[in-house]
Amino acid sequence: MCPSLKRNSSRSRSRNRPGSFWFSSLSPSWLSALAVLLLLWLYLYLDRFGYAAPLPINGSGPSGTRPVALPSDPELGNLPLLNPGPPTSRPPPPPPSSTDIMATPNPPKASKPAVTLRQGAYVGSTILATSYFPRPVDAFRGIPYAQTTAGQNRFRPPQPLPASSQTFDALRFGKACPKEGRIAPDTGEDCLNLNVYRTGPGLEGTLRTAKLPVIIYVHGGGFNAGCGIERNMAAFVSWADDDMIGINFNYRVGALGFLPSALTAKEELLNLGLRDQQLLFEWVQENIEAFGGDPDNVTIMGLSAGAHSIGHHLMYYARAPKGAPFAKAILESGATTARAVLIPTHPRHLIQFEEFLAAAGLGSVPEAEVFTRLRELPLQTIVSASKAVWDRYIESVTWPFQPVIDAANTTGSHSAPSSLLNSTSPSSNFSTSTHHPPPPALIPDLPIHSWRQGKHLRIPVLTGYNTNEGTIFIPGGADTNADFRAFFTGLIPSFSAADLDALEKLYPDPVTDPNPQANPYRDVPSGKGRQWARLDAAYSHYAYICPVLQTAHFLSTDIENQHSVHVYRYAATAQWGTANHGDEAPVVAHDVASLGGGRLPGLLAVADAMHGAWARFVVSKAGDPNPPSPEKSDDGVVAWPTFLSPFSPSADGVVREWTGTVRRGETPAGETGQLLVFGEGNDERVATLRAGQEGVSGVGGGGWKEWFASLVGAGKTGLREGTPAKVGMLSEVELAACRFWWGRVELSEGLGNRGIERERAKL
């Protein structure tokens, strides 16, 4: 095993930083000239070395960043993609055998990393150590985990791959799943593939004797966009002190992955994108030992829709006969109680389904022929129709094509079948010999009901949120109190006038406030309406912050849960001077290329702290993100306290505060409401974005463009590095907001009877 870069001194992470380059002391004028030359070099060599343009991380928000992945050999850029070739590029489609699943654990040593699986042998590449990748990483890109979803597999559950003795190149990313209304060259229905990144063996090439911890990233995108490579897992693995394996993958989004309707329920085709994710988890269990991974130490990590998905899996696998194919979970800015989880026959979904069929030219097709015709349509027609419906609901944030209560994939009862097992912990004996059909329901009830009934896994969880989660979703021009009320009336039709009045008092109007100087929502960026900051706070609490804290609350007050919960808040500011939804993504990955290329020392310190904590959580079987020292580690992380809910457990859903500091309904055990705050006071990205990147999102960074902008902006004053990490407390504003939103979660999550009647009236 190669020696790891342990943080045994304050220089352990700074040795290879781009910020330590020889030109760091040059004057701004020299830096500007150098930047022009670098820009010319980038244009000449960008495509050859595997860089790509930013990819969207959110359906309605700005773009995130595609990971930077430098191949070890320049000629790799001339090799074809793994999957989009002729039919011989992947195993043929016959059904697989249910036996002989396990793969060869130790393939022969070769000049390039190779692995032998039941579905075939794969030859990868090695990303060599650079200032962006301090340790070499073995990369296996574009490996399929299911058959193509085209043709008769469209609008069907994912199909496992058959056995094969062929050898395939795993050198380039596979196709991403279709999204955004057009078919790009790197997208297609043969998109269910993954990328595996493993800490490289180093110069010694020694064989490992211990199995490696595994982390799987589930991408975001509002269930309508996104792809696995939005999170740079190569960087995540390379910067980790300990050897590990990182995985990202694609699943179906938009109408192809989530098309709720009465007909879809009747055909048992709901929540296909979540089924894709579950097949990937099973694939990892069956194959990860071939890469040297530990199937009993798997962490799943998701952002936004990826975190929402993980929340559903926490509940599903508590009932699954085979137990959970993962042992720990990280949920960034997402939870099952976020926004709305409706029944497939809810009027909103019925309306959107009819709009989709009309946009696809199938508005008058008999019900019995709908899915047959949908499978025959050109892919562009499907994707364009999906985008047309999506565009109608962006401003109201009442998005189409979402996970729904499947209730045994029928239109019957919402109650979970009593025959399902109620396992409360992940199984170390996860069966890999047979591909079992899924239990009858993936989401059998409103998630809030499952939480209250204790129908969820009890495993280590790390979760948190960003200070300004709502900025990229809310309408920028909202200017009056009427605009504020109209937004939430459309978002939650079941809200009564009394609910809206209470909402107004909780978030006072900055325009009519008799004491405007004390109003926290008075300051807005140029070009935004006067209600912008107010809407951001209210929507942030409604859609992200309070659902995240609700997950932490239920886990920390569950007397049967013996595992810790850790909560964070990300506070480093970017576009609009706010900490926006998804801004933490490149920081967690320690993706230096997306963090100013090393020219933002404060943000790199935040990345050291945040990535270090995430990596320790992955490695520790107990899910402990804390450093070995009880005080402080070399990456800047102070001791991270376990989250203890400031609210008492309540089966009836009424939120009550503790009178003291108590845990799980028993005796005092610590201070409640503590969390770790990352990047407080850091505003370096605000300045770099203004130095030529106005309009580039803070979501996921600007990639090489932001790095270039940071060079031109070098030497500008006003940059604050802030504090990498510090212990904080939930504020009174957050506590009051959660009292309000938790008390109305059924109205929001299921839209209630009033909302259903109001929607039905539109039919």
UniProtKB/TrEMBL annotation:
GO molecular function terms attached to this record: hydrolase activity
Low complexity bias spans: 413-435
Carboxylesterase type B domain span: 112-643
Pfam families noted in UniProt: COesterase
The keyword Transmembrane is annotated on this UniProt entry: yes
Recorded family membership: Belongs to the type-B carboxylesterase/lipase family.
Identification of the protein by name: Alpha/Beta hydrolase protein
Organism, scientific name: Lasiosphaeria hispida
